[in-house]
Amino acid sequence: MQGFWLRLPMHWLRDVRASSWTPCSHKRDWKPSEGQNGYIMITANGGVNQQRVAICNAVVVARLLNATLVLPRFMFSSVWRDTSQFGDIYQEGFFISYLKSDIRVVRELPMELQSLDLEAIGSMVTDTDIMKEAKPSFYLNYILPILYLNRVVHFVGFGNRLASDPIPHQLQSKWKGQKLREAKKSRYLALHLRFEIDMVAHSLCEFGGGEEENRELEAYREIHFPALVELKKMKRFLSPTELRSEGLCPLMPEETVLILADLGFNRWTHIYLAGAYIYGGSSRLEALTTLFPNLVTKEKLLSSAEIEPFLNFSSQILDETIYLRDG
User: Fold this and answer.
1) Which terminus of the chain faces fewer neighbouring Cβ atoms within 10 Å, N or C?
2) Which residues, 6+ apart, have CB-to-CB distance to 228 below 8 Å?
3) One-letter-per-residue 3-state SS of 238-304
4) What burial class does residue 114 get, using C-beta atoms within 10 Å of its C-beta: 0-12 exposed, 13-18 middle, 19+ buried?
5) Mean residue pLDDT across the chain
6) What does the pLDDT read at residue 16?
7) How far apart are CA 252 and CA 200, in angstroms?
8) Is the Cα torsion angle 149, 151, 157, 158 positive or negative in sign?
């Protein structure tokens, strides 16, 4: 591990701090938001982790805009093929009561707003309408006026659409510094490669599969990312080689192996591989499974009978982020 840090460029070692982050969620020294400016709806996309991030961001935006949050919904993903909704995974009552010191949460829109055609009146806001990592000022300048006008805004997708910094002090999440120690002897590791076909296709990178891979990923983009396909026709993107040189491509499993080894995880480390089907299947995982033989997936941990009720409900099973704590 020490050698790993010594090989990093100096700009990686500088102490660059966020502008104003301090632990604060245990000090709730503000009054609960009454949510008087309208209602925020969210239909989050992605896997369980992306959905969780979208929900957290929606809570922050509701507080920022003094709006009432309607219980989130989840968009069906052709990758996860999971029809689970918020109440299938989380406890709705606990969610509402826990956040009552921060924002107002309701189970559904008031009756008089349920018949509105949100897209027709301009209250449907998709990811194409919001830049990635948008700052709070964007929501105050562009979303709040819609809320005033129509009393409701519906965010669809909402993936990474709120910047982590700067965030007003009152809206910061609780942060506990966790020290990453050198991995000694055998350790347990939960690993999410993020190498599913949607991530691979959207990256516009190449992964060594030649023309067959290019045709397959382009066909996938035409079905699942038509806006990206059209944008490629009008705008020059970085080439796959340039994307990789800039560090903008998802790590291939064989690259992940090198990082794990350099971090000090030995071959006897027990690894749980989270996530959906890895692009390229078992052959793509060969380097990982060869060097880390104690790697398992949910399919290996459960019998066919145990996993059968969850075949189309992966969000309800094991793919939660697992945090390793000292001691």
Assistant:
1) C
2) 202, 204, 221
3) CCHHHHHHCCCCCCCHHHHHHHHHHHCCCCCCEEEEECCCCCCHHHHCHHHHHHCCCEECHHHHCCH
4) exposed
5) 79
6) 43
7) 9
8) positive
Q: What is the DSSP letter of 228?
A: H
Query: Taking 80 as the threshold, does the pLDDT of residue 208 lie above it?
Result: yes
Is residue 228 a contact partner of residue 220, using CB atoms and an 8 Å limit? no
Q: Which residues contact 261 (CB under 8 A, 6 or more apart)?
A: 291
Residue 287 token pair: 């380097």
Query: pLDDT by residue (tens digit) across 186-195?
Result: 568 888 888 9
Q: What is the pLDDT of residues 138-181, one digit of tens each?
A: 999 999 999 999 999 999 988 777 866 666 655 654 323 333 33
SS3 210: helix
- 187, HSE (Cβ side, Cα atoms, 13 Å): 20
Q: If you count them, how many residues does the chain have?
A: 327
Closest CA to 192 of 311, 323, 308, 81: 323
Report residue 19 as tokens: 């502008």
* Strand 188-192 relative to strand 68-70, pairing: unpaired
- The model's confidence at residue 255, banded by pLDDT at 50, 70 and 90, is very high
Helix axes 210-224, 226-234, angle to 10 degrees: 110
pLDDT at 80: 63
Contacts for 321-324 with beta carbons within 8 Å, 24 or more apart? 321/49, 321/190, 321/192, 321/274, 322/190, 322/272, 323/178, 324/187, 324/188, 324/189
Mean pLDDT over 64-81 rounds to 85
What is the phi/psi pair of residue 125, to 5°?
-115, 115
Q: What is the mean pLDDT of residues 64-76?
A: 92
CA angle 125, 126, 132 (to 5 degrees): 110
C-alpha 278/C-alpha 295 separation (Å) is: 14
Chain mean position to CA 174: 18
